[in-house]
Amino acid sequence: MSQGLPIIQNPSRQNFSRRGAVKTLLSGLAAGLLPPGLASLLTSREHLLSEVFLHRADEALAGKTYQPAFLTPAQFASLVVLSEAIIPGSRKAQSAEFMDLLLTVDNTKAQQQFAGSMAAMETASQTMFHKDVPTLGSVELKQLLEAESAKDSGEGSPFATLKSWTVTAFYSSEIGLRELGWTPDRVFASFPGCAHPESHS
Length: 201
Hints:
Blueprint: E1 7-9, H1 18-30, H2 36-43, H3 51-61, H4 73-86, H5 95-105, H6 108-129, H7 138-151, H8 158-171, H9 174-180, E2 186-188
Antiparallel strand pairs: 1-2
Helix pairs in contact: 4-5, 5-8, 6-8
């Protein structure tokens, strides 16, 4: 990290909750400091503005074991693997868990689109490798994502849908914030950018 980058002192030195991470991101959005693609994803998830939802999400994510609230156990297992393949670190950031929670409060259209995207990825996995997504190796996962993104990466396509949700979930976590330049004792006045710029397109 560049030592010449201006900083703003952060009064809170403790690790951020998901609610704290979202507030920090929204502050960056208001100041025009976020990458344009990430800013547009944040503004499209209206539930990120809900204090009630974020409080409930923090409680759910703090538990020792997470039980999917919207997705089936099989879908959730696939999402954990897919999100980690899309953005390494997503598993530790509890991205799949946060996406599942977001889906419980989203509208029917978004829920159906997400479920359809998951089904499409599972079908593609079976077609290419005769395996369920959670059983794919790292090379197979890479090939699956490359094949699906090559088919149609336009807005609303299965790959684009999962990618946008994963980006939102990852960068609204403490791990995602750290990648953007946040540290517990200070916040950079301008974000240096993330390590996955292709995910914001």
